[in-house]
Amino acid sequence: MNPPLIAIPGRRSDEAKGHRTPVVSGGRLYADAVQRAGGLPVVIPPTDDVDLIRATVERCDGMVLLGGGDVSPSQYGREINARLFGVDEFIDDFEIAAVQHAVSLDMPVLAICRGHQILNVALGGTLIQHLENYEVHRDTMHDVQLTQGSLVAEAMGTTHPMTHSFHHQAIETVAPSLTVVGHYSDGTVEAVQHATATWVIGVQWHPEDTAEEDPANQGLFNALIQRAARR
């Protein structure tokens, strides 16, 4: 059986070892976790051609949305905060178009960190632009409380996973079609799932960082591939 094709909306980079020109990248740790689970990662080059985005997504069986820089507040009707970094509205538009189409196709989606935020914004939610206690979430390990029976808890095999956190933003207003299924002790939204889609989830932490050693975090990728293989 052919491995499920997992779309990874890519990023543009001016620097990459061994390349003379700018590159499109998809993040090795994400790709490694997808491959360990039995999937084949397919990096989609960024474009503003919505028809091309949709056609490319339709050739895949699932999607992983990556972590990265901050989502432009213009995407959810807010003014920019001076503490933002890495804002790229071109990439915002690209990823929003990609995930909106994936959801419309009922495609399995695993949205990670920034991707979790993009998913929320793409479906009509808003973000906290800067957490006042961001140090708790900046390159730290902490546990998360998951809802029993949620897609995230089922995939991870636990309701109290240890997670690697690296962010300074979080979901503020939850998109109407998303349900919160995970929190940190300070109230930060850590996990969501789509209310009607078969398997669309977002996590605020970085499961790819610890997936090789931690079966619970690898479980998210395993569940994604299992769902993708059924399409």
From TrEMBL:
GO MF terms held by the record: gamma-glutamyl-gamma-aminobutyrate hydrolase activity
Entry-linked InterPro entries: Class_I_gatase-like, Peptidase_C26, PuuD-like
GO CC list: cytosol
GO biological process: polyamine catabolic process
Gene3D superfamilies per the UniProt record, alphabetical: 3.40.50.880
Chain positions covered by the region annotation Disordered: 1-21
Protein name according to UniProt: Unannotated protein
Natural source organism: freshwater metagenome
